[in-house]
From TrEMBL, chain A:
GO terms for biological process: siderophore-iron import into cell. It holds the Pfam family FecCD. InterPro entries: ABC_BtuC-like, ABC_transptr_permease_BtuC. GO terms for molecular function: transmembrane transporter activity. This is Iron complex transport system permease protein. The lineage of its organism: Bacteria, Bacillati, Actinomycetota, Actinomycetes, Micromonosporales. Coiled coil: none annotated.
Automatic annotation (TrEMBL), chain B:
One of its GO terms (cellular component) is plasma membrane. The lineage of its organism: Bacteria, Bacillati, Actinomycetota, Actinomycetes, Micromonosporales. This is Iron complex transport system permease protein. It is found in: Cell membrane. One of its GO terms (molecular function) is transmembrane transporter activity. PANTHER family: FE(3+) DICITRATE TRANSPORT SYSTEM PERMEASE PROTEIN FECC-RELATED, FERRIC ENTEROBACTIN TRANSPORT SYSTEM PERMEASE PROTEIN. GO terms for biological process: siderophore-iron import into cell. Belongs to the binding-protein-dependent transport system permease family. FecCD subfamily.
Length: 346, 356
């Protein structure tokens, strides 16, 4: 009797420890996001002390002009960085877990490039604004993701073939985008090109609200569904045998991920490689294979926050956030390739 | 990936010497080349005759055979359509040969100057030269284009080729996508600082042949023609490389040196083509496969076929873009993208068809 209970007990204790460790990590990451959030509002042409930032944000500023600087200039940008980062981190992690492939990020799946074309087309051809553009981004992202899914063929999406298909489709989307830029008016082209590099500085309030609402609903929902992802990681066959309704779970999670990345793209443009990096970094930090989507989202937020801080303050003139993440992401991809070289699989 | 000859094309696919081609086959392939040349001539004629301004065929002949005749139609032909057509032929040949060399050197069916980020590297270098250093003429910034193309070639190939398996299609495409993403976002950032440059850049970035006049052609033609001529002689070393590094080395070929020379030729071809027409993707991918389909795995035949079929395809796409949306025009880069992306995807899906 005791012999059968002993392992069960230790297993339970182990589980409890892991849950505690996970909770502590999540709390730590949340605090880190909050700290960087406040710090990002202290720097600028005028430095505002962190404590004054907090006071001004909650509505009792030390000095009157703090309110203007925080609310009008810095808070929108800081909030955008957090929500866009959360959305990108979560969607990247969902795709990576769902497709069991570290390279399965919206950057390569064509979701971003599809959303790009849709937004530029909506902006240049039909003068869409605000929520209409967000909707266009969602539709474009979906259409492209679906096209790649089907073109990659049966079972192809968990392998490497879909990356080739995704890169091919992305190249087509890129050439359509540059065609749209060439036929637009100069002002439209300029706005669209700025947006295409990806920067959190130019998000409109409507974009941020749409994204925040989507996050409030989809982040908890996908975190709950994410627990079932652990079953999916055993492979479709095993998961089905264990009673998981993989089809519905997959569809729902994919839906959530596409909506999140499309809204983030509509808000801040395609900020490169954040979705690609967030999940693996979160896994590195916790040192475990199964990883909560929430922690990946928090890491995504941290990446965008730091990238935007660097973009604004490192050089004499501010640059776009997307350039910084691109410069960080490209070596990361190089590292993935080199690692694949070493293990001999790719 | 050992080179496996198409059984129909070669009697003994794995012999170490280049496969022997029968006399009849040789005559057939030579005739095919003449056919391609004829198609090129016909398309070049259409490229001169067709456009937003309708010009009679008689006037087209006048433009060539009656140098004293002067009329607005003749000016359009001599100053706009002829340079455009000549440039299309040179750029088409350069990109197709660049793609063929790339596929041969990397032994990779999906290698393409556009997908691998070579054109993006050239584009970034050109934009930097114009914006930051103030170079004005095409003859001036073409040197920067070579450097940019060379850097991204070495970067992408070096990244993908380390390791036991060598440059697999996935690793090449991934490295290319990463390099392209970074280079093109920096390019946009540089351009955004200046409205005039942005306005020029957005027409150049699509990949277009319109608005290129005779001076541009004369400045770039030496590089395009010299690069193409050198590339045409690369058949033998490419055939040897196709057998694998070990066999090539055993046959006495200095593999590293050959590769470096071929990469330098690729950088010249792709850099000059990008300087002339902007970053055009997929042409260098498709043409070698069409050529290989016609004449089998022998690069001594693939190269001349590519040199003729590249301009044929580019001119066909350019004319299509002019006719479909007349009196406006769809830039040739967009037409090639619409044709080429499905071809790329088909190749990625059915890789067994195109193992090199």
């Amino acid at each position: 009797m005791t012999k059968t209970i002993e392992p069960t007990r230790s297993f339970r204790a182990h589980r409890r420890n892991r849950a505690r460790w996970g909770l502590a990590l999540s709390a730590g990451l949340t605090i880190a996001v909050a700290v960087v959030f406040i710090l990002s509002m202290t720097f600028g042409s005028v430095t505002v002390a962190p404590i004054d930032v907090v006071l001004a944000t909650i509505g009792s500023p030390t000095e009157k002009w703090h309110t203007f600087i925080i609310y009008e200039l810095r808070l929108p940008r800081a909030v955008t960085a957090v929500v866009v980062g959360l959305a990108l981190g979560a969607s990247g992690a969902i795709f990576q877990r769902l497709l069991r492939n570290p390279l399965a990020s919206p950057d390569f799946l064509g979701v971003s490039s599809g959303a790009n074309v849709a937004v530029v087309a909506g902006f240049v051809l039909w003068n869409l604004t605000g929520y209409q553009l967000s909707l266009a981004a969602i539709l474009g992202g979906f259409a492209t993701a679906a096209a790649i899914y089907f073109l990659a063929g049966r079972g192809g999406i968990s392998g490497y073939r879909f990356i080739l298909v995704g890169i091919g489709v992305s190249a087509l989307m890129a050439s359509l985008t540059s065609y749209l830029l060439a036929r637009a008016t100069l002002n439209d082209a300029r706005a669209a090109m700025t947006w295409l590099i990806g920067s959190v500085g130019m998000a409109k309030t409507s974009d941020i609200i749409a994204l925040a609402i989507a996050l409030a609903v989809l982040l908890p929902a996908s975190a709950m569904l994410g627990k079932r992802l652990r079953v999916l990681e055993l492979g479709d066959g095993t998961a089905t045998a264990l009673g998981a309704n993989t089809r519905v779970d997959r569809a729902l999670l994919m839906l959530a991920a596409v909506v999140l990345v499309a809204l983030a793209t509509a808000a801040a443009g395609p900020i490169a490689f954040v979705a690609l990096m967030a999940g693996p970094i979160a896994t590195r930090i916790s040192g475990r294979a199964d990883e909560s989507i929430f922690r990946a989202a928090a890491v995504g937020a941290l990446i965008v926050q730091f990238a935007d801080l660097a973009a604004q303050h490192v050089l004499a003139t501010p640059i776009s956030t997307g350039i910084v993440t691109g410069f960080v992401g490209a070596p990361y991809i190089a590292w993935i390739i080199i690692r694949a070289n070493r293990s001999g699989a790719a | 990936m050992v080179a496996t000859g198409r059984p129909s094309a070669t009697a003994a696919p794995t012999t170490t010497t280049p496969p022997k081609v029968s006399i009849a086959k040789r005559i057939g392939l030579g005739g095919g080349l003449l056919l391609a040349l004829g198609a090129l001539a016909v398309l070049a004629f259409f490229s001169i005759a067709l456009g937003s301004r309708s010009i009679t065929i008689g006037t087209v002949f006048d433009a060539f055979f009656d140098p004293s005749a002067i009329s607005p139609d003749l000016t359009v032909i001599r100053d706009m359509r002829v340079p455009r057509t000549l440039l299309a032929i040179a750029v088409g040949a350069a990109l197709a040969l660049g793609g063929t060399l790339l596929q041969g050197v990397a032994r990779n069916p999906l290698a393409d100057p556009g997908v691998m980020g070579i054109n993006a590297g050239a584009a970034l270098a050109i934009v930097t030269a114009i914006m930051l250093i103030g170079v004005q003429s095409a003859g001036g910034y073409v040197w920067f284009a070579f450097i940019g193309a060379g850097i991204s070639t070495v970067l992408v190939y070096g990244l993908a080729a380390t390791g036991r398996e060598g440059a697999t299609p996935v690793k090449l495409a991934l490295a290319g996508a990463a390099v392209t993403a970074v280079f093109s976002s920096v390019t946009s950032a540089v351009v955004l600082a200046n409205v005039d440059a942005l306005n020029e850049m957005r027409f150049w970035q699509v990949g277009a042949l319109s608005g290129r006049f005779m001076p541009v052609f004369w400045q770039l033609a030496p590089f395009l023609i010299a690069g193409s001529a050198l590339a045409l002689f690369a058949g033998r070393p490419l055939n040897t490389l196709a057998l694998g590094d070990d066999v090539a080395r055993a046959l006495g070929q200095p593999v590293a040196l050959t590769r470096s020379i071929l990469f330098a030729i690729i950088a010249v071809l792709c850099g000059a083509a990008t300087a002339a027409a902007g970053p055009i993707a997929f042409l260098g991918l498709m043409v070698p496969h069409i050529a290989r389909f016609i004449c089998g795995p022998d690069y001594r035949w693939i190269l001349p076929y590519s040199a003729l079929l590249g301009p044929v395809l580019l001119l066909a796409c350019d004319i299509t873009g002019r006719v479909v949306t007349a009196p406006g025009e769809l830039q040739v880069g967009v037409v090639i993208g619409i044709v080429g992306a499905p071809a790329f995807i088909a190749l990625a899906r059915f890789r067994r068809l195109v193992q090199l």
